[in-house]
Amino acid sequence: MPRNWLFTTLFLPLCMALSACQAPGEDIASAGSDDGQAAVDDIAAAEYIPAVMPDDADPALWVIRDEDTTIYLFGTVHILKPGMTWFDEAVKESFDASDELVVEMVKPDAAAMMKVVNKLAIDKSGISLRDKLAAEDRAEYEATMTKLDMPVAAFDPLDPWFASVNLSLIPLVRNGYAADQGVEDELLAQARARAIKITGLETLEQQLGFFDNLAEEVQIRFLNFTVDNIDETTEGMEQMVAEWANANVDALGRLMNAGLEDEILYETLLVNRNVNWAEWVEQRMEQPGTIFLAVGAGHLAGESSLQAILAKKGLVAERIEY
Q1: Beta partners for 218?
Q2: Count of CB atoms within 10 A of residue 145's CB?
Q3: What pTM value is reported for the model?
Q4: Which are the contacts of 191, defined by CB distance < 8 A and separation ≥ 6?
Q5: Which candidate, 60, 55, 16, places its Cα nearest to that of 255?
Q6: For tag attachment on the chain, is the N or C end more exposed, with fewer CB atoms within 10 Å?
Q7: How many CB atoms lie within 10 A of CB 192?
Q8: Residues 226, 242 contacting (CB under 8 angstroms)
């Protein structure tokens, strides 16, 4: 496997890193807030009916308009298998009508990326990752690494959150998913071909900082959760992509946010970021223009969705049917 798979996490919004860990239909713990609990309870209580991948993917799309400003909201999946067709019909028409692309993060060059990784994702305490784990958790972690044909010490220099994200990506890469085939990759290529403005809502340091600033015990819980659910990673991803392709927004939101079992994770990685982005949208609506705003699909579903927060500000996102 190419070594650069280690850094595919840098191309993924953080909720996506959590999302593929939960298998459809499993019991999951509380998200720790009323909104998160509602989403968690729904999927735990109801029998999950797997989605079927359609021949023609038509992901959900919304629009916010006033007299001189239009903002399209598009939910993305950030790692896909090659060959999937989704950039057509209303999605392409809306994108072609836009004069600015806004994404969660515009990834920096390799040198800048490595600088931030070394600063935020590499352990500075001198204690190896495995030595931070309880005996039982360490045994399960090492067994998982062995099952994945990885050296058990491979992630020892990493912070627990970074090890967890990378661990969850191994089954995906081995099952045909490619970090350069995500929705943002296509949108960015199209934007550059048209020479339109490209804006990032966050920087790489901010995105990695969300995880790095978590208490170590929370990071370790995240890692243990990933280990416990590693066998379901690919199945969970397949279902999320199918729900996304079918524009099944509610089901997709439940799947994508199922891994946010700690209140701090739910608030830090989903709610707080949506609040910040809603402020950006509100301010941007004061300027004329047409914007195509593409963020992880989990941010556009559920009680704490970007649209729900915008609605409280009087900005209504209308669903585009196509």
Answers
A1: none
A2: 21
A3: 0.84
A4: 101, 198
A5: 16
A6: N
A7: 11
A8: no
CA distance 189 to 177: 19
Q: Which helix (H) or strand (E) holds 118?
A: helix 110-120
Two tokens at 263? 């209140």
The residue behind tokens 């929705």 is: 183
Residues 58 and 322 sit within 8 Å (Cβ to Cβ): yes
Residues 6+ apart with CB under 8 A from 57: 84, 85, 86, 244, 245, 246
d(CA 257, CA 158): 25
DSSP string, 36-55: HHHHHHHHHHSPP------S
d(CA 206, CA 245): 29
Q: At what angle do helices 204-212 and 160-174 cross, to 10 degrees?
A: 110
Listed in sequence order, the residues at least 6 apart from 176 whose beta carbon sits closer than 8 Å to its beta carbon are: 81, 82
Per-residue pLDDT reduced to its tens digit, 20-64: 333 323 332 222 334 444 444 444 445 668 889 998 999 999 999
The residue ranking higher by pLDDT, 240 or 294, is 294
Nearest CA to 289 out of 90, 65, 103 is that of 65
Q: Whole-angstrom distance between the N-terminal and C-terminal Cα of the chain?
A: 40
